[in-house]
Amino acid sequence: MMHQKYSLLSETRYPIKLGSRGPLESRSRKTKYCHSKLEHTALRVLQTERETEYLNESLEKPEICITETQAADAFPWFEHWCPAAPVSSLDPNRPTHISMMGLDLVVWNSDGTSSGWHCFEDMCPHRLAPLSEGRVENGQLHCAYHGWQFNSKGSCMKIPQIADAEKHANSCSSSRCSVRNYPVNVSQGLLWILPLPGPMGEAAAAAKPSPGVPELEEAAKNVWYQRTGWFVRDLPLRFDTAMENILDPSHVPFAHHGVQGNRKKVVHREMHIIDQKVTKDVGFKIVNEPPQSSATTLKTASADTQHLTQDSAQIKSTSKSGANDAKNTGFKSNFGFQPPFLVSYEVGSFGAMKVLATPTKPGWSRMFVSFLGRHDAKLPWFLKALIMLKEGNPAIEHALARHPVLDGDTYMLHLEERKLLARGNNWSREYFMPANADTGVIAWRRWLRDFGGEVPTLRATDVMPDAMPREQVLDRYHQHTKNCKDCQQAVKITDILSGICLAVAALSTIIFISKLTTVMSIAAQPHSTTLVTALMSVLQQPSSGLAVALVVVGIFTWRALQRFRRNFFFTDYVHAFK
């Protein structure tokens, strides 16, 4: 019988027969299932130095078997609250499908209040029809296929096809007749779901009663306030890829040039993990600051966390070019990861950016972004005015600020992650990261490797979808607009204004043509003025000039509105022209 080993550096499983030879020598009985510490270290140093292409091709994929200690330390993904959607985007009058953690769920509201939200598995126990296609009546969820009715606990209350009262009661009381029910919580403008059904979910929810961002909790409201609402977008990226990108600030001036940075004005900075620790429950926090007199080195962790260290080529990387740059000035900022979904960026007294990234289904993630401000921040008046102008209208902010940032790198990452999977999903071998700027990426991959365990949607059994064309990867409508009430309203207003512009332009054109036709008919009569003189007289009339102006303004305004409308559907992002 073949036993399987599991690689913590990737989600790919590599079956190895007992007694098989490794890349250095055959294992002793003691180390038959695991590399020895010395052998494992040697393998990783050789692989990461990448001295020759032959070396990379000949080495066996590095593997570490899951020991009992590591299995026990795996992060309990399904025991934590997961953000599902902004409450403002949900319609309490109809059920809504939610993909989360590889699960198909349906959320619905039984009484139209904030406490009336419920979450079920999106599957009727009768014939597996999606309950999200059903309707809500009298505080119960009705399946649209055969009319079965379920209460807020998931119990079946009515089966229209059974008339006999005793048989109906026996059928409804069967455990097979109920729907899986998941705990929900409304907090900080979001609907949260704990993706663990039944009594186990209720126990986990009771142990973690208050989900959300710490800075937005009641105790911190005298310091922080939420400057913008939650921007949400589904991205065709794996959860690990999305998180890796969020924790990589060094790509911003290049991937988002002209939107959120400038590739011609890059200020070299150094990063190091605070206290040199990456832990299962706390995650990690990184200082991002201008270089000091000596290059910062990502040092080996303490003895209890020494297994987190990366190979020497990545750990001891420095930013020498930055140290010699005369422009190495700037402010100190922090960013970090708090398991399971929160990434925080804090920039002094200016404020903070909070990002929640969650796995939804294989190859897809959902991103929540909000900006926070500090009550004690002392900003210039013009900067405050600029922030209010930029963030005052959610739809404009989404279209002109949030979407362009995500469009700047999503397509590249969509292709990049498939290349990594095709090469065995071994980031430590395939990534060459000699710069200190990759500290966040390394820290995230270490945490995922050592504590992630079987991450939902990243398991070996989860099938990755095929690569999509860029028009689908950057499809703003299906990834955001159709679920955002602010953007839907903006599209409606844009369509109304576009129709008014076309109507005004058409009416003005008709008025001008009618005047012109009258003048031309008069000019055609004998002994009348010349055609040129008649035309000049028409153009000199205030009403005619106004008609021409309205035609021009109407057409140009319509075109501008149509260009703005495209921001809610698809706008191509070509780096060569940025």
Write the layout of secondary structure elements.
Elements: E1 4-6, E2 13-15, H1 37-49, H2 53-58, H3 68-72, E3 82-86, E4 96-100, E5 103-109, E6 117-121, E7 135-137, E8 140-142, E9 149-150, E10 156-158, H4 165-173, E11 181-182, E12 184-187, E13 190-193, H5 198-207, E14 224-226, E15 231-235, H6 239-246, H7 252-255, E16 270-273, E17 284-289, H8 312-315, H9 320-323, E18 333-338, E19 342-347, E20 351-361, E21 364-374, H10 381-391, H11 394-407, H12 410-422, H13 427-430, H14 439-451, H15 470-473, H16 476-479, H17 485-523, H18 531-539, H19 542-566
Antiparallel strand pairs: 1-2, 3-13, 4-5, 5-6, 6-11, 7-8, 8-9, 9-10, 12-13, 14-21, 15-21, 16-17, 17-18, 18-19, 19-20, 20-21
Could you characterize the architecture of this molecule?
- The protein has 578 residues and is an alpha+beta fold.
- The chain has 4 domains: 4-72, no CATH class; 82-207, 3-layer Sandwich (Rieske Iron-sulfur Protein); 214-478, Naphthalene 1,2-dioxygenase Alpha Subunit, Chain A, domain 1, CATH 3.90.380; 488-577.
- It is 34% helix and 17% strand.
- The chain has 19 helices and 21 strands.
- It has helices spanning 37-49, 53-58, 68-72, 165-173, 198-207, 239-246, 252-255, 312-315, 320-323, 381-391, 394-407, 410-422, 427-430, 439-451, 470-473, 476-479, 485-523, 531-539, 542-566, and strands at residues 4-6, 13-15, 82-86, 96-100, 103-109, 117-121, 135-137, 140-142, 149-150, 156-158, 181-182, 184-187, 190-193, 224-226, 231-235, 270-273, 284-289, 333-338, 342-347, 351-361, 364-374.
- The strands form 5 sheets. Strands 14, 15, 16, 17, 18, 19, 20 and 21 form an 8-stranded antiparallel beta sheet that branches.
- A hairpin with a 2-residue loop joins strand 12 (184-187) and strand 13 (190-193).
- Helix 11 (394-407) packs across helix 17 (485-523) and helix 17 runs antiparallel to helix 18 (531-539).
- The chain is globular.
- The chain starts with a strand and ends in a 12-residue tail after the last helix.
